[in-house]
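Final report, Chapter 2: Outcomes

The project's central promise was a pipeline that accepts a single protein chain and returns its three-dimensional structure in a standardized token representation, suitable for archiving and comparison. That pipeline is now operational. To close this chapter, we reproduce one record exactly as it appears in the project archive, with the input sequence first and the structure output second.
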Amino acid sequence: MKRNIGTLLVTLALATSCGQKTLTKEVAAAQIISEYYTPPRFYDLQLSCADPSVAAKMKNVGLDKDGLVKIQETYRGREIGNKLVTFTPAATPYKLETSAALQALGIQIVKVADFKFGAVKEIRDQGNGQPIEVDYTQVNENVNGFAKLANYDFKEVKTKTARFTYDKENGYRIVPKGKRSF
């Protein structure tokens, strides 16, 4: 009986230590990816307020009914190039800083949604000095009315992959996309 209890305790200790090792990798990966998403990241759109097709699309999706924009219904030939869309005070929180050059062209940049790190799904360590790959979810939040103009499903949780390398000086770090690590 004592032998069985001893075996059980050793088995539990081994199982717990193995579980902790995996958990530690997941926690470390989650922390590094979370830091990568700080400050918060977001999707934005450049809207041409002088373009009749953009004004028509805004009207079709109901941004004027939502109270975000006012759309000039008609315009004369001499008004070509003037703004057809003006933003209401309700749209102020979504307007982003736009350069003077873009503003002169009648373009306004608006924030559509924030995205942030969700959770670690899988960690793949190839060994042999190869980068570690971590699959994680990206969650969209604070989606506003301007999202109706984007060709993107903001309700869907996306799965992304991050690649990590390790060096003695900096520890684990994310490898930027498009760069190889040898």
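Archive annotation: The two ends are 54 Å apart (CA to CA).
This record, like all others produced under the grant, will remain available to the consortium after the project formally closes.
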